[in-house]
Structures are given as C-alpha cells and as structure tokens.
Amino acid sequence: MKKLRIVILMHEDLVPPDSTDGMTDEQVAPFKTEFDVFATLRDMGHEVHRLGVSSDLGVIRKAVRTIEPHVCFNLLEEFDGVGVFDAHVVSFLELIRQRYTGCNPRGLMLAHDKALSKMICRYHRIPVPPFHVFPLGRKSHPRPRKLEFPLFVKSLTEEGSVGISQKSVVYNDEELAERVAFIHRTLNTDAIVEQYIDGREVYVGVLGNQRLTTMPIWELHFKKLREDAPRIATGKVKWDYKYQEKVGVITRAAEDLPEGAEVTIPRLCKRIYRALSLTGYARIDLRIDNDGHPYLIEANPNPQLAYGEDFAESAHAAGIEYDDLLQRIINLGQGYQLTGVG
Ligand SMILES: Nc1ncnc2c1ncn2[C@@H]1O[C@H](COP(=O)(O)OP(=O)(O)O)[C@@H](O)[C@H]1O
Ligand SMILES: [Mg+2]
User: Fold this and answer.
1) For all residues of the chain together, what is the average pLDDT?
2) Is residue 144 domain-resident?
3) Is residue 247 domain-shared with residue 312, that is, in the same domain?
4) pLDDT tens digits along 4-32
C-alpha cells in the first residue's frame, strides 16, 4: 500500500491528542471519530496531519500549499457553526483542485435539504413520506389536505436529531402549530412536516462513486421502551448515554425483514444515492411501515465514522475492517473525478 500524505479536516474544538491513554470514555466521546480516524491512519503508516477548522478557509489553503496532501480526509460537519455550510468548504476544495474524501458539494447540498431531496427522489419513484414545508417567518400554517395525522415535525436542514423528541409526533392541528412554532423559534430554520411512518427504522451504509457497495441492513431497536411510545431516533436516543441504557437502545443487523427486502432495500438505497448525486460514502435512513413498505427518511452523506458506530459496524459485518474501510474511503476520494482536473 502506498503511504500517503493526508490532512484530516476537523472542527477546531475536536482536534484529538496523540493518545487517549488514561482518559475516560466520556472524555474521549466528543472527538472519538477524529481520534479513531487519525490514530488508525497513522498506525497504517500514512503521514497524517490534523487540521482544526472553524471559520477561516485560509488555514485549509495554507495547509494544502505547505503539506501538498494526496488527499484531505473531510470530517467537517459544519463551517462557522452552520451545518449546511459544509458543502461550501468542499466547494472550496474543488476550487483549489484539492482531492478529498466523502461527498461532493452538490450531493451534500441536496441531501441536507430534507424537502428538495424528497422531491428529487419522488421524481425517480422512490417512496418518500408525503410532506409539506412550513417556512420561517410565515404567520399562519394551514395544513395541506394530503397530510393526515399523525404527522412528524422537524427542521428542514438540521442534523443529529436536533429538535427531535417524542413531541415531534403530532396528533392534531393544535400540536402541529405548536411544534412548527417550536422549530422556528428554537432552531431558526424552516420546518418540514412529514407523514409519520410507524414501523421499523433501518440504516444502510453505501460506499462508492460509480460502482456502489452496500453494507448489511442495520436496525434500530429499543429493548426497554414503553410499548406505546413512538420508536424514533430522538436527540436523547442518539446522544444521551444514560437514556440509551434506560430504554435499551441498540442497533444491529436487521432480522426477519419482509420477504425480498434483503434485495430490494439495498437496490433502493443505491438508487437514492445516485438520485442525490452522492459520492464517497453515505448512510441511507429508511423506515419500513407496518405493511412492509420502505420509505426514505433521510440520506446522510459523510455519516459518523467512529470505530464501533453503525457505519463501521455494518461494514465490519460485511467483512470490511475499520482500517480497510478508511483506506477504501481514501481511494474513493482519490478516484473521484474533480471538476476542471484532466
Ligand atoms: N416521517 C417520519 N416518520 C417517522 N419517524 C421519523 C420521520 N422523520 C424522522 N423520523 C424520526 O426522527 C429521526 C431523525 O430524523 P431525520 O430526518 O433523520 O433527522 P436528523 O438529520 O436529525 O437525523 C429519524 O431517525 C426517525 O427516527
Ligand atoms: Mg437522520
């Protein structure tokens, strides 16, 4: 294997130390992805540089000029505190003809807009929940007739289940108006209201630019949640370790899927990946309703890449070990056809 010069782009506050010896899991948690990627690439023999980025593109230009990396490993999920700005950072890398891992700017932009991505998918006859956008700044919010309760209310653009709790499922017009106002007020973004898909939640990792590989279908389970509570990935389910333990959150290879789903779901996820112009790697989130019909909930380009998290775990189940996974992501970054480069 060729030894490469790699600059890892990461949030300024998450630049990991050389070693986490003596630190507790809780101390490591905020920068676990950054550390896992850094330490693994270093141990593979690559020349690895950690670059903290917050609100200045100049640091990237300078590092690219002085280090001349073969590839930038992109772990940025925001720029200057704004999630959707991650696409612009990647655009900057394209402008300076720098190769990078993960998704291209167009894919990032399309996937981060939960309405636009569903419009494109619907054009391709990919099943998506019916939805309606309630823009910020508009006073009254009449509910379109095609949307029947229960509905699900969330931010159009935020990630990581910000603003998502059991109250996101609404059962009448009053609750709907209240939750839309909550999203507007607390997140300052448009709100999207979708048909609530009751059923199972599955995730499919996809790897590739043109030729795509899918990982085994992964499923979210709650072993100890009240029977009548909606089974959804709220902020607490994703980030609160104590709550995870309390309700028994686990993810694992999905079993007893509806007939044929082992074949049709990965195929569907590849179509979604292509429809949204994704490249590099992504995790497609779906829900399967109680009649066995899958619906796209969200496509996540550049998903969480920590060792032991869903993406790496499902890759492991497919026989792709963590170092191999990172190397494949790098190879895809190097192989991606940059615009304007012959
Ligand atoms: N239409 C829906 N029906 C049922 N559950 C939903 C729906 N939309 C979102 N959810 C639940 O909320 C979670 C987070 O929603 P998602 O759109 O993936 O936002 P985020 O970008 O914050 O992850 C999903 O994983 C799912 O559990
Ligand atoms: Mg999601």
Assistant:
1) 96
2) yes
3) yes
4) 999 999 999 999 999 999 999 999 999 99
On whether both 184 and 248 belong to a single domain, the answer is no
Q: What is the CATH number of the domain that holds 165?
A: 3.30.1490
Protein residues within 5 Å, CB atom, of ion ligand 2: 285, 298
**Position in ligand 1 atom list of the atom nearest CA 231:** 27
Ligand nearest, relative to CA of residue 295: 1
Domain count, the chain: 3
- Listed in sequence order, the DSSP H helices in the chain are 25-28, 32-43, 58-67, 86-95, 105-112, 116-123, 173-187, 235-239, 241-247, 261-275, 310-317, 322-335
The closest-lying atom of ligand 1 relative to the alpha carbon of residue 197 is 3
- Which of 88-102, 232-246, 306-320 shows the lowest mean pLDDT across its residues? 232-246
What percent of the chain shows pLDDT beyond 70? 100
The CATH number that applies at residue 26 is 3.40.50.20
| pLDDT for residue 141 is more than 80 | no
> What is the rounded CA–CA span in Å between residue 298 and residue 112?
9
Residue 295 CB–ligand 1 contact under 6 Å: no
Range of the domain at 140: 130-195
